[in-house]
Amino acid sequence: MSQVRNLFAGGNTTQGFVSFFHEIMGEDAKRRFILKGGPGTGKSTFMNKIAVEIGSYGYDLEKFYCSSDVTSLDGIAIPALKVAIVDGTAPHIIEPDYPGCVDEIINLGNYWDAEQITKEKNDIIELTKQNKACYTRVYHYLKAAKELYEDTSEINRSCVDLTGLNQVFKNLINEVFMDQRRNNRVGKMRHLFASAITPQGLVNELPSIMKNFERQIIIKGEPGGGRQLLVEKIADYAVQQGFDLEAYYCPITPDKIEHIGIPDLNLAVISSHPPHIYQVDNAETIDLNDYLNRSKRWEYQYILHKNFVLFDELLDLAVKQLRQARSIYVSLEQKYIEHMDFIKVEQLIKDVTAKILLFAVD
Question: What angle do CA 280, 284, 285 make, to 5 degrees?
């Protein structure tokens, strides 16, 4: 039976839109189909229908959802066949790295009535401008929220027992790796998102991503309390020991690793803190709040509370703007949907599915 993992390859973050789309299927890809075309041309439906058909043959799938609408797909990957289909339009524009031999462009714009769409020109331009304005505001709110998050982190860092934290790291390294080394090489790291800030709110896909890792270690703790530092140190050590790993980032801190999965060790190390609260039965838990100086931290209680409240309000404002952007985008999609030849697109879906299945006999 086919298993599916749900992930994000890009996200609305405190640094603007950040894309890891080139990592949906890396350099080992045998075929990567890059979808082009405007709103409403059916890119998500195209990928979803192929995913259902390929899944019916028992192939495991990775589904990459859109941070601007978690009901829509931005990409799919079939790891066993080393094949992927990705949405290559803005804001995650992708162009072929290896045209013809690996990458194949599919332009769904070939199936619209350009003459009729031209008649919608003024409305399309206006809706596009409104949509972009919403995203500009989203990123202003998120950037402001990041400043508050950093202030909270700095306060907590000043209250951390570094000696105790370093001992936790040493104990975990010794216990997890036990001097294991994977060949004489440096491991590879795959970068993706496990959570997203979306019109539907704060969403995380950790249960789907981590479900197959037999051993799971959950790291709890306040921002700046050492969660990310601990996860990043383990990631660095694993790579130096030759282990390949999956590195997952958070839209609040898109430059820092929040979670890792190490397939060869069947191990996941997961940071649990909003917006990615995570708990499962039989997981091991390390609470880094035990290494915070409570009395010293109490001196900042008022500031920490205000930071939390304002941070939450800014996130809420960002989500509301994403909802507004989504509403505008739906109107924009309608301008194209009305003038698409979806009968021909259906035939194209069948043709691409057949191409993908040919890789099963290579």
Answer: 90
